[in-house]
Task: structure prediction
Amino acid sequence: MPSLSRLYVGAAREAAKKLVGKGKGRATLPAARHHVTGVLPDLVKMTEYQALLSETKLDIAPAGYLHALSFPAAMSVMGRDDFPLPLLGMVHLRNHVEYRKPVLYRDLLDVTAWAEGLIGHRAGTQVDVVTEVRHAGSDDVVWRGVSTYLAKGVFLPSVDKPRVAEPREEFRAPLPTALWRLGSETGREYAAVSGDFNPIHLSSISARALGMRRSIAHGMYTASRALAEVGAQKGDAFAWDVKFEAPVFLPARVCLNIGDSTDAHGAWVHSAFVGWSPTSGRRHFVGSVERL
Result:
């Protein structure tokens, strides 16, 4: 696997070049796919991840852990010299994951990542980064993730015109089913188990250096913690969607509501979740989980 720390260092160097030529860069994505073979989950890190995210400690790797495990391959695509957008400053808009077959901690895995769907956005340029995980030597995808990112303020030539802003739906906070108290160390704790040491998550000092007023929680931390609270009823094969709307500045309190849907026989089929600030009432994220 590529080193995330080296990728971030390289991203800082390349971002300066790409921002200097903002609006004049290439409007095409690299056709290359980055492929990593023989990836083995780290049992210690996986166990620490399960403890931090309140996941049940099983031999099966959580969906969010597989995102973290494969993330360096996705980052390496965005860090390429011929990738048209600056990696640093990317905003994570949403995530779609299909966990199709269970992955055990002892399974050797192959990971493939590539970029697609370069389109205009009212605030810049949007791109999808796709990551697929297979058991080593197999053609069957066991885990697939599509992460949508926004390069704010970067408008590339020949890219579709920015879309009209979607009307913001009115949000009325429901009764919370959980209240999270997130300390200033939350970003560092998640970085330790995920390997994602993006400076905007580590401290207020490093976050302010990149234009944030305080450090923010990883989006995948909040999404994965909500998924853990859905519980075992989702089974071993499920689809998981999340849309990020507002950053969680640390320290923070986050209210969570999970609503379950059942079929005519009372069996679980779907959960919808939403997280918001009890102070401002602003929604941080919204998502759903359904069985495949």
Notes: The first strand starts at residue 34 and ends at 39. The chain has a mean pLDDT of 91. The longest helix spans residues 4-20.
